[in-house]
């Protein structure tokens, strides 16, 4: 079967472009189909779906590595903020407390100073924009890692003919919507019955 | 040997006593799992999905015609309101002759991730109000909301003022931008969409993290040192374990509800600006025109007074009272102070209007 593009090959430069586009698409598709055969040959039954989706898993793993870099950056900053605050607070305690407590009262007083200074300094840290932003970014990166893990799990679930997270969520959403409609109708009915009873 | 320091024998004595207490603690103290937190007798009168409407058995003659429904917070369980017979918020109200109902939100699962403000306000809370109205054959009831439960109760009261005779807001979460607590700082920087899309419900672990940044050294170290030091004090130990058990029992918060709560209260702050929508309806705080009693605690490090007090000024009611107490978030509802000061004042206010 002769394609439209090759039939009009010599007609105009525009047709020539079309022809090469077709040529490129033809070989891309053929190579793709041919290369998937050995992959199918090495997989059996339900594993076929898993093999077909293995590219998705590879992509997720590459992206996980990228996210891990970001995650490490924010978690380092998180611990840096905690340790700097600890250092400053400890210096303040050292200035106020006696070096070696001599009796029970002194130990108690030293403990009180330590707790008050540390609580104040750490509350100040947790309350700061700098901490809030870094913590927000850290959690966000953690969630991205979870998302990739979810995607990988979905590929595995689909390979064994189980519903993915998105499909289950769709069912939950539908159930929620139905329940909402039913309970609103029930409530309206009750209110109506009460009105009529008066 | 002039520079040799002398160690006070009392220090050694204290260390030995403390070590002995730690070793012997399991002999005298119950495990938190062995403690039953539901102290005041009650029955479940209505159950919708995972929520339960509890009716507390009267312990004295009912003196006030209007029943009271309590909308507890979304964080932790309702047991703190009935933590110990001597510090029970509910028991105290029963002793004052009130008829008390409480809405237990239950423990949401992954299946409940789409529950939102509308479900809580116009669904569960409205169904409970309707049940009580029907049961008592009255047109209006009294409503009390605590913490985030007061955010839900406030939305309900503004949307359904015809059902509420008196409204009590205890440490309500209202004006997120004015909140000075560390929780609001974390909430303001949270990508709540990503959290809910990825993990569904707000996980309890996140709440435990939030608790851990509140006075981390007082709450994380000193509290437990005190516990082991006072291991012989039965009353102290019993109270400590009950509160600890309650603190460790945090259910997840449904994803959609959590998303709306963080965005509308902490990030966009729409409730106090009368811009928040629930179930497609605008919440106008001016519509809260019934008697309102707002209780805030100066030492509240979960919901700062600056976050709660704006409710008092935003409502349309002419009969409004604002009480500020020198205590904390939990101290206001489950302490000797609440029994001696907070509850009698609230009871007196409510009795006059019930």
Structure in words:
The complex is a heterodimer of chains A (198) and B (354). Chain A folds into three domains: 42 residues; 116 residues, no CATH class; 36 residues. Chain A is 85% helix and 0% strand. Chain A is built from seven helices and no strands. In chain A, α4 packs across α5 and α4 packs antiparallel against α6. Chain B is of the alpha/beta class and 354 residues long. Chain B has a single domain, classed as Rossmann fold (3-Layer(aba) Sandwich). Chain B has 13 helices and ten strands. In chain B, α3 packs across α4. Classes of the chains: A mainly alpha (198), B alpha/beta (354). Chains A and B meet through α5, α6 and α7 of A and α1, α3, α5, α6 and α8 of B.
Features:
heterodimer; A: 198 residues; mainly alpha; 7 helices; 85% helix; flat; B: 354 residues; Rossmann fold; 8-stranded mixed sheet
Structural class of chain A: mainly alpha
Please tally the β strands of chain B and state the result.
Answer: 10
Alpha-carbon distance between the termini of chain B? 78 Å
* Gross morphology of chain A: flat
Largest interface: A-B, 43 and 44 residues
- Count of alpha/pi helices of chain A: 7
- Tell me the number of helical segments of chain B per DSSP (H or I, 4 or more residues long): 13
**Rg from alpha-carbon coordinates of chain B:** 22 Å
Sheet having the most strands of chain B: 8 strands, mixed
- Residues in helices of chain A, as a percent range: over 70%
Q: What is the general shape of chain B?
A: globular
**Can you tell me the CATH topology of chain B?**
Rossmann fold
């Amino acid at each position: 079967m002769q394609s439209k593009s090759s039939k009009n090959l010599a007609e105009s430069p525009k047709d020539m472009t079309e022809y090469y586009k077709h040529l490129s698409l033809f070989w891309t598709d053929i190579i793709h189909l041919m290369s998937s055969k050995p992959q199918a040959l090495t997989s059996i039954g339900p594993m076929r779906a898993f093999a077909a989706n293995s590219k998705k898993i590879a992509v997720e793993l590459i992206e996980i590595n990228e996210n891990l870099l970001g995650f490490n950056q924010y978690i380092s900053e998180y611990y840096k903020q905690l340790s700097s605050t600890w250092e400053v607070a400890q210096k303040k305690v050292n200035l106020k407390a006696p070096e070696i407590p001599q009796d029970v009262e002194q130990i108690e007083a030293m403990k009180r100073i330590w707790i008050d200074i540390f609580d104040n300094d750490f509350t100040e840290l947790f309350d700061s924009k700098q901490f809030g932003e870094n913590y927000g970014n850290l959690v966000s990166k953690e969630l991205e890692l979870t998302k990739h893990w979810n995607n990988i799990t979905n590929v595995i679930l689909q390979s064994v003919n189980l519903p993915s997270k998105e499909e289950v969520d769709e069912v939950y959403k539908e159930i929620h919507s139905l329940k909402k409609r039913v309970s609103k109708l029930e409530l309206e009915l009750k209110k109506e019955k009460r009105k009529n009873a008066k | 040997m002039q520079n040799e320091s002398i160690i006070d024998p009392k220090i050694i004595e204290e260390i030995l006593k403390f070590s002995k207490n730690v070793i012997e603690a399991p002999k005298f103290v119950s495990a938190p799992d062995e403690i039953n937190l539901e102290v005041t007798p009650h029955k479940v009168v209505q159950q919708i999905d995972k929520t339960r409407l509890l009716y507390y058995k009267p312990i004295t003659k009912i003196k006030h015609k209007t029943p009271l429904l309590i909308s507890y917070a979304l964080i932790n369980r309702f047991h703190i309101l009935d933590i110990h017979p001597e510090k029970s918020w509910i028991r105290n109200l029963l002793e004052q002759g009130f008829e008390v109902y409480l809405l237990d939100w239950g423990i949401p699962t992954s299946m409940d991730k789409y529950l939102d403000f509308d479900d809580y306000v116009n669904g569960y809370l409205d169904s409970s109000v309707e049940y009580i109205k029907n049961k008592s054959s009255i047109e209006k009831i009294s409503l009390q909301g605590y913490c985030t439960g007061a955010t839900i109760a406030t939305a309900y009261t503004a949307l359904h003022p015809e059902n509420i005779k008196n409204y009590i807001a205890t440490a309500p979460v209202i004006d997120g931008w004015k909140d000075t607590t560390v929780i609001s700082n974390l909430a303001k920087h949270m990508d709540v969409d990503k959290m809910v899309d990825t993990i569904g419900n707000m996980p309890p672990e996140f709440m435990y993290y939030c608790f851990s940044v509140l006075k981390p050294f007082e709450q994380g170290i000193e509290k437990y040192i005190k516990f082991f030091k006072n291991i012989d004090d039965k009353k102290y130990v019993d109270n400590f374990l009950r509160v600890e058990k309650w603190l460790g029992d945090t259910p997840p918060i449904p994803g959609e509800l959590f998303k709306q709560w963080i965005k509308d209260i902490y990030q966009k702050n729409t409730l106090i600006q009368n811009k928040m929508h629930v179930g497609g309806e605008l919440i106008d705080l001016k519509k809260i025109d019934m008697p309102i009693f707002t209780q805030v605690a100066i030492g509240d490090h979960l919901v700062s007074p600056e976050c709660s007090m704006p409710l008092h000024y935003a409502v349309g009611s002419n009969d409004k009272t604002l009480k500020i107490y020198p205590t904390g978030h939990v101290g206001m509802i489950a302490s000797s102070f609440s029994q001696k000061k907070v509850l009698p004042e609230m009871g007196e206010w409510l009795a006059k209007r019930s």
